[in-house]
Design brief:
7-stranded parallel β-sheet, 6-stranded parallel β-sheet, globular, alpha/beta, single chain
Length: 749
């Protein structure tokens, strides 16, 4: 078939190597998705493998759907029978079928992050702990990290090292919170996202016959973005592939940027230790970016010690040099970026969607947004409040969740008095306390309200119970859309929103209608055999942020670099390249942390197809204070042949007739432009404790050390103008003129 003729030689080898363990190292822009889809199509078409025996794991539903559509174009509708989806969606599917073995109902609720935080806040309050010490974010992150390393609450509490860490952090009750949180989830018939992985491991560990069943089902296992897997994900995958050993992992260690979510780069770096008979194929041809961008990216990632060596190259055009934009402030940075987009867009007849602005932290978007609005440039922010996180959407979904699972405590708390039905917080507290004191479910308490409550609350709670029972009948008799429409109307939720005639109220009403449209679309989709409410709720719960993005509008994309992984744009601005911001001051505690930040810079740079811009500001407001900023060390690591300084430097500071060129690793002020020369090899290795000195009083005759040029003597210091510079004669590199605001110098004498 012609899909093989469209591949290069390493890609073909990756596609046709079907037996035994295979690792595909896929450099940025190397056609990874094409290889994965072609490999699955090859298994089905040429090897005659039944699609029910192929498991393909991805990190977004969007990626899985795109791959499935591509495969379908080659092999037809049989592609719909593949087990393909995110780790969480595939394992949730397995758990639905097997949940009762580990004590959960098959219709268990999947708690999102808000549900988990709400439950943690309740637990902290009930335990009488300080919620400023035990913040929900911090506690949830700690619990999530433990689960990703397969540490249950029992192991957590019995581990002296973990206990010592919590004591040192002044959070000695963390283990007790973890235990209570987990027991409450179990009682509510709910799993959080991490439980979907944790409990799959428990299922396979405690029920070998279940593991054997799925080992026999999946003859071929494939994992996309393998560098992003955590311990839990890898262990499940390894167990499933243990019998036939037909495991194929695809990834790029240079793009491993999710350690904060539990991703373990050692999975890809040490894969060969688990599979000594491994075949490795490297995809090194980049089809996305220009030669200049590829060369710059290679120079960046080459500084990392922990990596699988590869040499990414491209046959694309040379392309333009990376443009470095220096601004006086963060607001000025935003203005320069917006102005550049406006001019380039008009000159080259491009669309807004051809541009992306990438930043290290979400807070950096403010200055960019303000500047784009002033220029009337339409933009969208990826990773903002998603549709399914809006209050009115979560309210209706909570009704639907509680109807399906009467033990769902978080859904119960959300809907018991919405719309208002005269059931106050004290009544809700009594219900919850009664459930835990008598070790029964909340549903049993409200079903027998006369035994646990008093006064008017008995009747109002009984009315609510009757309402839920009537909805339950609707859900069991009708498809998801018909049932949801009935619930939205008869719960009073739609009327509550309709009666609010403000613009916000109208928007909320329209949002609920849009949710009903989404449910109708789910029901009408012929690929969804199960059209029940439970099936719809599972699909919604497992949507990833990327799946929720709206790509229909022509807009400049603003997002964090973490969100940009896997995407590409013609023109990319990487903004805020300053020390303590990028690399983040939180990521300088170890070489591993710093190497992850460098991989993040590599990912940002390789999103660009035609033109890449780096920007930094000399001052920036952070934490309510105006701070002076130093350009990022990463700028010094980019091959100087690939970068140029924008001559239209910030108008807020005097620059005279200076042009700035890169040579070696520092910006050098020159009266006239010069031809570039390839920099000499840097052999100087500074002391590990090297610390730059204050050069505000640097004088001629002083001896200095530079981290890359080594030792030298200062010939003269030019203080004319805003940019002080020094001419220094280095022992190994000769005379160089350095901008003192940028260069790092240690004064020796």
């Amino acid at each position: 078939m012609n899909y093989l003729s469209e591949l290069n030689e390493p890609q073909r080898r990756a596609v046709t190597t079907t037996e035994g363990p295979l690792m595909i190292i896929a450099g940025a822009g190397s056609g990874k998705t094409r290889v994965l889809t072609s490999r699955i199509a090859h298994l089905m078409h040429e090897e005659q493998v039944d699609p029910f025996h192929i498991l393909a794991l991805t990190f977004t539903n969007k990626a899985a759907n795109e791959m499935r559509q591509r495969i379908e174009r080659v092999v037809g509708v049989e592609a719909r029978n593949l087990w393909m989806g995110t780790f969480h969606s595939v394992f949730a599917r397995i758990l639905r079928a097997e949940a009762e073995k580990i004590g959960y109902p098959s219709n268990f609720t999947i708690y999102d992050t808000d549900d988990s935080k709400s439950l943690i806040r309740s637990v902290v309050k009930e335990m009488g702990l300080d919620d400023k010490v035990y913040k929900a974010n911090t506690v949830l992150s700690r619990i999530s990290g433990a689960k990703n390393r397969l540490i249950g609450w029992q192991e957590y509490q019995n581990d002296p090292f973990i206990k010592a860490d919590d004591d040192a952090a002044m959070k000695p009750k963390m283990g007790a919170i973890y235990e209570t949180y987990q027991k409450r989830c179990f009682k509510a018939g709910a799993m959080d996202f991490d439980d979907l992985l944790f409990n799959t491991n428990v299922l396979f560990r405690d029920f070998p016959e279940v593991l054997y069943k799925y080992q026999q089902r999946f003859h071929y296992v494939m994992v996309d973005e393998f560098q992003d897997t955590n311990v839990s994900q890898y262990l499940i995958t390894k167990k499933l592939a243990a019998v036939r050993r037909n495991i194929c992992v695809v990834g790029d260690d240079a793009q491993s940027i999710y350690a904060f979510r539990g991703a373990d780069i050692q999975n890809i770096l040490n894969f060969e230790k688990d599979f000594p008979d491994l075949t490795t194929v490297k995809l090194e041809q980049n089809y996305r970016s220009s030669k200049n961008i590829v060369q710059a990216a290679n120079s960046i990632i080459s500084k990392n010690k922990g990596q699988l060596k590869k040499s990414v190259w491209t046959a694309n055009d040379e392309g333009e040099q990376i443009e470095l934009i220096k601004a006086a402030s963060d607001n000025e940075e935003g203005r320069l970026v917006a102005t550049t987009i406006f001019e380039v867009k008009n000159n080259l007849k491009l669309n807004n969607s051809d541009f992306a602005i990438l930043y290290r932290t979400n807070s950096q978007s403010r200055a960019m947004e303000e500047a784009l609005r002033k220029m009337n440039i339409h933009y969208k922010i990826v990773g903002g409040l998603s549709f399914y996180q809006r209050k009115e959407i979560k309210d209706l979904l909570a009704y639907l969740r509680y109807i399906v699972n009467h033990n769902d405590e978080e859904a119960f708390k959300r809907i018991i008095n919405f719309p208002k039905r005269g059931i106050g917080d004290s009544t809700v507290d009594k219900i919850i306390v009664a459930a835990y004191e008598h070790d029964i479910s909340i549903w049993e308490v409200i079903n027998n309200s006369d035994a646990f409550l008093s006064g008017r609350a008995i009747n109002t709670v009984a009315d609510f119970t009757t309402l839920i029972k009537s909805f339950k009948i609707e859900v069991e008799r009708k498809d998801a859309f018909e049932a949801a429409s009935t619930v939205a109307k008869n719960s009073g939720l739609l009327k509550e929103l309709y009666d609010d005639k403000t613009i916000e109220g109208l928007n909320r009403y329209e949002n609920v209608q849009e949710l009903l449209n989404a449910i109708k679309e789910f029901v009408d989709n012929p690929e969804n055999e199960d059209k029940s409410m439970g099936a719809f709720l599972q699909e919604i719960a497992l949507l990833t942020d990327r799946d929720r993005d709206d790509d229909t509008q022509d807009a400049v994309t603003l997002m964090t670099i973490h969100s940009a992984k896997g995407l590409e744009f013609k023109h990319v601005f990487v903004v805020g390249l300053e020390e303590d911001l990028f690399p983040s001051q939180m990521m300088m505690n170890s070489r591993d942390d710093l190497e992850e930040e460098r991989r993040l810079f590599y990912v940002a740079s390789t999103r660009a197809m035609e033109k890449l811009y780096y920007t930094y500001a000399l001052t920036r407001y952070r934490f309510g204070r105006l701070l002076n900023c130093e350009p990022s060390r990463f700028l010094e690591e980019v091959d100087p042949m690939c970068i140029k300084v924008n001559k239209r430097i910030s108008t807020s500071e005097p620059v005279g007739s200076m042009h700035y060129k890169r040579e070696g690793s520092a910006f050098i002020g020159l009266k006239t432009p010069v031809n570039r020369v390839k920099p000499q090899a840097v052999t100087h290795v500074p002391d590990p404790n090297f610390k730059a000195s204050d050069t505000s009083h640097l004088q001629a005759g002083q001896r200095v050390e530079h981290p890359k040029f080594g030792f030298g003597s200062v010939n003269n210091v030019d203080t004319d103008g805003a940019n002080r510079k020094a001419s220094i004669n280095f022992e190994k590199f000769g005379e160089k003129t350095l901008l003192l605001s940028f260069a790092k110098l240690r004064i020796i004498e």
